[in-house]
């Protein structure tokens, strides 16, 4: 079987923040009522922790993102996504849910930089409040980046993971590279 | 310039920049389908309130959780009295109370 | 003549000379100079020509309020017009050119209009060029366009780049003078986040020039130490060269930061537009001095009194050798004292007040200066600049008492708080009689989302005119914002810094010098230098009935353009109020609009230019298309190949080849952009029955059905094939441009109307690549790929789908056709999309496989009479117009658009309906052409009876084919219509069936 490729094909840009293709990632969309304790119990029973509103548990490869009151993005290895769909479908059998493998629908970036450089690069493109107190590691922000939707979280203070739709991966890479040009540091955060 | 509101999404708690939202016009309209009179259907489809003062609007957190919500706000002062679930037919009591506190004498339509 | 003084200049570094040029002439200034100070230091008094009369003009001010000294800066890709010389920091190699003159600054042909100015009164455009009407387009407008306009637009693409920056802060303090610093310190002590900005490159503002002392220190020492402790706080950020240009709703403030204007460097952003969300804002924006209205006050050499001392103190530049001061207040005496101290001549201080007895006046007299109370200026003598000042009595009509040799006039009409930002956000102003200015009304501040004040004015921006009052106001503003944010007082002793400056006598409002100036003088007394508005113009406006201040502004252009009322506002209002016999507070002020100062277009665009102007969406096969020479077509934000012209082939020829190859062999289409939306749940079928005009709940799993979606208004908005995946899951295909819109619309109905229905929606458009394989050899080709799938007509009949694998890639294959050929659409995970495409090309080689673009797709669908959303529909077309009755369920009680389609007009037999059109000569009808009817409509225009919606050259039929909407069209088969064209005879076309090719559908069912 041919290998899957990411839309970024391993791209990397080194500015005052390094922007790189985070590689293949498994993503499974789950629509379900997260306020329903049966759903949460079933998920826990199958080994899936449910993050609180606006939060994430785990990380890329193994975790879950809170997307909305009735939507989670389950993170797993890319080649385990179909199996994860099957596990979830079985665990939630009989309940009103929608499970879909969307691993190929998105591009994932890893942004690294010293101090608050990563926050600064994101703040050039997103209206989100990026002060550390407002978005500490563990929090997820779905927002606008330039002219397209995106979501990001801080894995640590100097590293963020960013997800956008596959078709605009090139646009986002160009945007991020542009605003991470050395010499354009703001020094604000 | 009157175009840069901040509204708090009641579903995810984020104070949204207006550029993260999509507007949806007047809130609490009742749908009229087959069987309705021409007048009812016309009002449902085209007639919109454009008040100077307290107004109820629909917004979608389009660049976020994707949820529709309602906002009660003042079109003159831009004060936001509150945001609340889109899944109600009329503003909840706490929103009405918040408005009444700020706009003495204000009443929800049909309320005496 | 202005010159550089041998010493002095707190901001310049005489050890670092800088070379620059003005109108091609090489000049030198110093590091720390502005362009204005460097020009004045070189004796360049004449800097530009005025907008309307092309009068000679010099520097008036020293800050952003400068109306005259606007220059063109830089060249080629770095050229910018209308740059204020007073805000331009000098750098090595700076190139500036003066504006609004021809052929030269010194000799300007256009200046003749100043002699004829009596023929160019206010509103002359409206009056003079009204008649004859035909002259407007060919005579008046071209002539006016040639001479009007401020500066010249750049001709080249901007070679700099720009960026945006979004932040949220608790407190934003605007203005780095002593008030801003105090307010920021007080707020910061409570622990909240504070951002303090200053438009200049240095801190401290006017206090440093005016000799203010704070807490026993001179203002310079105090500023340095206070700022240092502020900067050491972790919750404080400070930034210079940053101007707040507009305050909008809910604490949204735009800041314009100039990073490299003082040291050009194309490798980093030139400007940064900050989009700040501040919970509380302090406007410590200072005050702006007002000019005085006297005859000849626009002569180069007439300057604001504060600006004159700024040039001496900050830059060691003497604006003149002999400066006459004209004032109505004590502050201007400081200018006299400063000039005297610098060894410059001050032949007289003319004080329009009857008495001048305050401490500053006394100090002036003690310094040996001549103070002449009750005096004004009757006129200025001099060609192109001030040479002599004619003195008169202020309360007279301008009889000249004596003449004074002078080359500079320092004028002061009092100070107005810079309340622009306060007003942007909806704050109201209050008239202050004592200072004769409008100041922020603390009872009516701008309010935020919570309905309470989001802004405080501090210091002179709040109307405080003396050091101690300024500090007290600033302190109180700092306390207020802390309190508004719910912060308690800090542990530190809460003390207002003590300010000392000279005591002041009250100022006296003086709106015209002399008070009874005759018309001849009023017609030469400028109110708005930039827009050439004089006292007589405002009077004329009032007499002609423009009594509202907003009307008078527009009629005369007072305070328009970059001025935005900075210099002209109060003086103009005062003249209007006098003419109307109403107090100024009743006349009111015009609206101050953002931006406070001009913002470059580059900063507004930010990153969004060139390749990043709009996002471009790319399918997983984009790179192949690109490498294969695709001629692109934008579809929404997507780029799709229109056709793939081969070497030596035109686009048209490529389309023809692609169509014929598909019809005879097999074609390959990247259809990945098609929307794909999963709808799942116990109520999914019910939901789709509402969303589509068809019945979707009865579709069998494994089958596909073409569906239509209408708006509630009944009009067709989208179409596509729906596949039922299992008992409670459907997959809806939408148009390429419609995916996001239709997905959003499904969510909207489910969330806001049918919220108790159990149905979830997911937009999986980008998860899949989708490849169309069409043509008589399509099945043969696919059979070569993978033995695991049975794609035979029994296993996978037309309008069915199946899952499987092709070439070891998991796929879902749909037997659907938009070309009319035997056709398969193959969906595969996007990450393997390119591999599948490559595999198909490879295996397809022996079959003559031909990739085709969107145009071939369109031609083939038109040959089959299939409609296209956006071609056959335009937002006013219902499915019934298109003969799609078969796709509208009669069994359903309700669906979106059903009620609307029941309206009388929707069933009108005269509606234009879809037909095919066949030109009699085989030519291709022009797109959008109308079919002429007999007679004329109410407007006297030829009546029409239809129009062309799609028109193509059909390679299959080797002739033009078209579809169109025609009045009663389907009932008129065989009739010939006439389509008038722009050049030549009307084209005649016969009404035929819209299905031109394979009407029985045998090919697609193969």
Describe this structure in words.
Chain A is globular, with a radius of gyration of 17 Å. Chain A has helices spanning 37-45, 81-91, 117-123, 169-179, and strands spanning 12-14, 18-21, 26-31, 56-59, 62-68, 71-76, 98-101, 106-112, 140-145, 148-156, 159-165. Chain A has 2 domains: 12-23 and 105-179, Gyrase A, domain 2; 26-101, Alpha-Beta Plaits (2-Layer Sandwich), CATH 3.30.70. Chain A has 189 residues and is α+β, with helices and mostly antiparallel strands. The longest helix of chain A is centred in the middle third of the chain and has 11 residues, at 81-91. Chain B is of the alpha+beta class and 112 residues long. Chain B has a single domain (6-90), classed as Folate-binding superfamily (Folate-binding fold), CATH 3.30.2270. Helix content of chain B is 17%, strand content 28%. A 4-stranded antiparallel sheet of chain B has the order 3-4-5-6. In chain B, strand 5 and strand 6 (80-85) form a beta hairpin. Chain B is globular. Chain B starts with 5 loop residues before the first strand and ends in a 10-residue tail after the last helix. Chain C has 1006 residues and is of the alpha+beta class. Chain C folds into 6 domains: 162-287 and 417-500, FAD/NAD(P)-binding domain (3-Layer(bba) Sandwich), CATH 3.50.50; 305-413, FAD/NAD(P)-binding domain (3-Layer(bba) Sandwich), CATH 3.50.50.60; 519-582, BFD-like [2Fe-2S]-binding domain (Arc Repressor Mutant, subunit A, Orthogonal Bundle), CATH 1.10.10.1100; 631-673 and 767-861, Probable tRNA modification gtpase trme, domain 1 (Gyrase A, domain 2), CATH 3.30.1360; 675-766, Aminomethyltransferase beta-barrel domains (Alpha-Beta Plaits, 2-Layer Sandwich), CATH 3.30.70; 909-1006, Elongation Factor Tu (Ef-tu), domain 3. The mean pLDDT of chain C is 93. Chains A and C meet through strand 7 and helix 4 of A and strand 9, strand 16, strand 41 and helix 23 of C.
């Amino acid at each position: 079987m041919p290998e899957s490729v990411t839309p970024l094909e391993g791209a990397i840009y080194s500015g005052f923040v390094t922007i790189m293709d985070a590689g293949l990632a498994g993503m499974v969309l789950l629509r379900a009522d997260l306020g329903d304790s049966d759903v949460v119990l079933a998920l826990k029973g199958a080994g899936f922790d449910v993050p609180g509103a606006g939060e994430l548990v785990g990380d890329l490869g193994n975790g879950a993102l809170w997307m909305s009151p009735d939507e989670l993005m389950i993170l797993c290895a890319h080649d385990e996504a179909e199996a994860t769909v099957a596990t979830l479908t079985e665990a939630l059998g009989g309940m009103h849910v929608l499970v879909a493998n969307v691993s190929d629908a998105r591009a994932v970036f890893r942004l690294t930089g010293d101090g608050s450089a990563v926050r600064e690069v994101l703040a050039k493109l997103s209206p989100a409040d990026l002060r550390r107190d407002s978005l500490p590691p563990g929090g997820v922000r779905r927002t606008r980046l330039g002219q397209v939707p995106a979501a990001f979280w801080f894995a640590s203070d100097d590293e963020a993971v960013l997800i956008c739709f596959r078709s605009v991966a090139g646009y986002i890479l160009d945007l991020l590279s542009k605003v991470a040009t050395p010499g354009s540091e703001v020094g604000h955060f | 310039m009157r175009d840069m509101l901040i509204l708090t999404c009641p579903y995810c708690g984020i104070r949204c920049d207006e550029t993260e939202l999509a507007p949806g016009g007047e809130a609490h309209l009742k749908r009229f389908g087959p069987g309705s009179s021409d007048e009812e259907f016309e009002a449902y489809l085209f007639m919109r309130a454009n008040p100077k003062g307290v107004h109820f609007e629909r917004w979608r957190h389009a660049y976020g959780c994707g949820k529709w919500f309602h906002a009660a706000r003042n079109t003159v002062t831009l004060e936001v009295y509150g945001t609340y679930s889109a899944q109600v037919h009329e503003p909840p009591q706490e929103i009405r109370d918040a408005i009444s506190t700020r706009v003495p004498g204000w009443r929800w339509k049909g309320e005496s | 003549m202005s010159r550089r003084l041998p010493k002095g200049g707190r901001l310049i570094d005489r050890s670092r000379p800088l070379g620059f040029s003005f109108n091609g002439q090489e000049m030198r200034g110093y590091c720390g100079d502005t362009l204005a100070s460097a020009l004045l230091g070189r004796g360049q008094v004449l800097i530009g020509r005025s907008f309307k009369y092309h009068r000679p003009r010099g520097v008036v001010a020293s800050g952003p309020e400068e109306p005259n000294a606007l220059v063109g800066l830089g060249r080629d890709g770095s050229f910018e017009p209308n740059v204020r010389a007073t805000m331009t920091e000098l750098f090595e190699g700076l190139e500036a050119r003066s504006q609004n003159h021809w052929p030269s600054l010194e000799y300007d042909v256009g200046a003749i209009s100043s002699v004829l100015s009596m023929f160019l009164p206010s509103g002359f455009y409206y009056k003079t060029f009204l008649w004859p009407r035909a002259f407007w387009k060919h005579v008046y407008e071209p002539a006016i366009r040639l001479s009007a306009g401020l500066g010249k637009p750049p001709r080249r693409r901007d070679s700099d780049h720009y960026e945006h920056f979004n932040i949220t802060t608790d407190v934003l303090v605007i203005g780095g003078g002593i008030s801003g610093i105090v307010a920021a310190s007080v707020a910061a002590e409570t622990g909240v986040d504070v951002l303090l900005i200053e438009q200049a490159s240095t801190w401290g503002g006017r206090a440093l020039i005016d000799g203010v002392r704070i807490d026993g220190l001179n203002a310079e020492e105090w500023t340095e130490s206070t700022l240092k402790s502020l900067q050491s706080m972790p919750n404080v950020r400070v930034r210079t060269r940053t101007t707040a240009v507009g305050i909008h709703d809910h604490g949204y403030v735009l800041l314009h930061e100039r990073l490299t204007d003082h040291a050009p460097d194309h490798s980093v952003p030139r400007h940064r537009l900050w989009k700040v969300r501040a919970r509380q804002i302090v406007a410590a924006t200072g005050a702006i001095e007002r000019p005085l209205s006297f005859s000849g006050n626009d002569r180069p050499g007439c300057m604001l009194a504060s600006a004159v001392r700024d040039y001496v103190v900050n830059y060691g530049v003497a604006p003149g050798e002999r400066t006459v001061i004209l004032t109505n207040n004590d502050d201007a005496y400081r200018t006299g004292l400063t000039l005297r101290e610098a060894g410059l001549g001050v032949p007289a201080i003319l004080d329009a007040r009857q008495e001048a007895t305050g401490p500053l006046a006394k100090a002036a007299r003690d310094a040996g200066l001549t103070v002449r109370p009750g005096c004004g200026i009757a006129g200025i003598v001099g060609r192109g600049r001030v040479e002599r000042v004619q003195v008169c009595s202020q309360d007279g009509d301008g009889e000249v008492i004596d003449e004074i040799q002078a080359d500079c006039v320092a004028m002061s009409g009092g100070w107005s708080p810079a309340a622009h930002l306060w007003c942007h956000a909806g704050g109201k102003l209050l008239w202050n009689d004592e200072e004769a200015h409008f100041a922020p009304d603390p009872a009516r501040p701008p309010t935020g989302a919570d309905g309470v004040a989001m802004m405080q004015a501090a210091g002179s921006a709040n109307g405080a005119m003396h050091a101690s009052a300024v500090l007290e106001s600033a302190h109180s503003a700092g306390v207020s914002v802390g309190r508004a944010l719910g912060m308690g007082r800090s542990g530190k002793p809460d003390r207002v810094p003590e300010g000392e400056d000279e005591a002041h006598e009250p100022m006296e409002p003086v709106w015209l010098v002399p008070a009874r100036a005759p018309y001849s003088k009023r017609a030469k007394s400028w109110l708005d230098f930039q827009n050439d508005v004089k006292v007589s113009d405002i009077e004329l406006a009032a007499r002609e009935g423009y009594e509202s201040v907003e009307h008078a502004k527009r009629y005369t252009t007072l305070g328009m353009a970059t001025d935005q009322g900075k210099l002209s506002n109060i003086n103009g209002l005062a003249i209007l109020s006098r003419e109307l016999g109403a107090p100024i507070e009743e006349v009111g002020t015009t609206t101050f609009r953002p931006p406070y100062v001009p913002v470059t277009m580059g900063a507004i665009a930010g990153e969004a230019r060139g390749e990043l102007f709009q996002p471009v969406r790319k399918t997983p096969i984009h790179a192949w298309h690109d490498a294969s020479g695709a001629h692109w077509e934008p579809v929404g934000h997507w780029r799709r190949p229109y056709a793939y012209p081969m070497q030596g082939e035109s686009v048209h020829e490529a389309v023809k080849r692609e169509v014929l190859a598909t019809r005879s062999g097999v074609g390959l289409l990247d259809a990945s952009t098609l929307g794909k939306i999963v709808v799942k749940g116990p109520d999914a079928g019910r939901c789709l029955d509402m969303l589509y005009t068809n019945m979707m709940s009865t579709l069998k799993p494994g089958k596909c059905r073409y569906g239509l979606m209408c708006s509630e208004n009944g009009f067709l908005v989208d179409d596509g094939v729906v596949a039922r995946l299992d008992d409670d899951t459907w997959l809806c295909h939408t148009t390429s441009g419609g995916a996001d819109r239709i997905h959003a619309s499904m969510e909207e109905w489910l969330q806001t109307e049918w919220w108790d229905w159990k149905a979830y929606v997911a937009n999986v458009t980008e998860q899949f690549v989708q490849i169309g394989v069409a043509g008589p050899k399509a099945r043969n080709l696919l059979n070569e790929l993978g033995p695991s799938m049975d794609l035979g007509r029994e296993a996978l009949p037309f309008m069915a789908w199946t899952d499987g694998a092709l070439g070891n890639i998991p796929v879902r294959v749909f037997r659907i056709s938009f070309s009319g050929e035997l056709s398969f659409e193959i969906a595969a995970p996007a990450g393997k999309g390119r591999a599948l495409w490559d595999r198909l090309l490879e295996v397809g080689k022996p079959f003559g496989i031909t990739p085709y673009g969107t145009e071939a797709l369109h031609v083939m669908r038109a040959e089959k009479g299939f409609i296209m959303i956006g071609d056959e529909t335009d937002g006013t077309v219902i499915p019934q117009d298109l003969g799609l009755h078969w796709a509208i369920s009669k069994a359903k009680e309700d669906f979106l658009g059903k009620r609307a389609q029941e309206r009388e007009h929707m069933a009108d037999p005269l509606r234009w309906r879809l037909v095919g059109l066949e030109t009699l000569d085989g030519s291709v009808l022009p797109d959008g052409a109308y079919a002429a009817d007999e007679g004329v409509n109410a407007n006297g225009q030829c009546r029409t009876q239809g129009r062309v919606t799609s028109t193509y050259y059909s390679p299959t039929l080797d002739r033009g084919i078209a579809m169109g909407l025609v009045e009663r069209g389907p009932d008129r088969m065989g009739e010939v219509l006439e389509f008038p064209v722009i050049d030549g005879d009307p084209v005649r076309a016969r009404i035929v069936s819209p299905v031109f090719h394979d009407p029985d559908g045998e090919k697609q069912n193969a």
